[in-house]
UniProtKB/TrEMBL annotation:
The gene is rimI. It is found in: Cytoplasm. Pfam families: Acetyltransf_1. Acetylates the N-terminal alanine of ribosomal protein bS18. GO terms for molecular function: protein-N-terminal-alanine acetyltransferase activity. Its EC number is 2.3.1.266. The keyword Cytoplasm applies. This is [Ribosomal protein bS18]-alanine N-acetyltransferase. Keywords: Acyltransferase, Cytoplasm, Ribonucleoprotein, Ribosomal protein, Transferase. GO terms for cellular component: cytoplasm; ribosome. Signal peptide: none annotated.
Length: 154
């Protein structure tokens, strides 16, 4: 049986998120940055995905007035392709829209086809480029905004 739960993250999740960062990103956020996000940053909203009790994914968003800025989304490699990230994004958008967030945006590496595909599924469109944004390899960041007139699809 696969039981997927999407819930708000709290400080007991710091280690699990740090582990996901290490596994999923070339330049992971430090444990200290994650701790600050979960305990000090009043604009931050983080969610966790638990599959049969195991933390397998997470995502974060900064709520800036009426805009939601997605900071990170990650799913453990062995659990990708099961629509777990889609479930996370759907819950985040639905919940934060209920809190008054009207527009959503993010930056993604131009080579990250999986992430761009995920965001396109939620009606994010490529609307700009930050040239050489990523310091590790000089890659461009694609700026995506979600078309607010489109309903959520999942
Ligand atoms: C991006 C990521 C979060 C997607 O997680 P996931 O749970 O596998 O995604 P889903 O199963 O919900 O897929 C949603 C959609 O994304 C797209 N997608 C997912 N993986 C893809 C891949 N490898 N290639 C192309 N498109 C892909 C598809 O459009 C998919 O929809 P579909 O299955 O209906 O066709 C995951 O690959 C990951 O953790 N990557 C490393 C971290 C990262 O790059 N995060 C994003 C930058 S912040």
């Amino acid at each position: 049986m696969n039981n997927l739960v999407i819930r708000q993250a709290d400080e007991t999740d710091i280690d699990a998120i740090a582990r996901l960062e290490e596994i999923c990103f070339a330049t992971p956020w430090s444990r200290e940055s994650i701790r600050q996000e979960l305990t000090e940053n009043k604009l931050a909203f983080y969610v966790i995905a638990e599959l049969d009790g195991e933390i397998v994914g997470y995502a974060g968003m900064w709520l800036v007035i009426d805009e939601g800025h997605i900071t990170n989304v990650a799913v453990l490699p062995e659990h990708r392709g099961k629509h777990i990230a889609s479930a996370i994004i759907a819950v985040m958008i639905e919940f934060t829209e209920g809190q008054g967030i009207k527009r959503f945006t993010l930056e993604v590496r131009s080579s990250n086809e999986a992430a761009k595909g995920l965001y396109r599924k939620f009606n994010f469109k490529e609307e700009g480029l930050r040239k050489g944004y990523y310091q590790d390899n000089g890659e461009d960041a694609v700026i995506m905004w979600r078309d607010p007139s489109e309903p959520l699809k999942n």
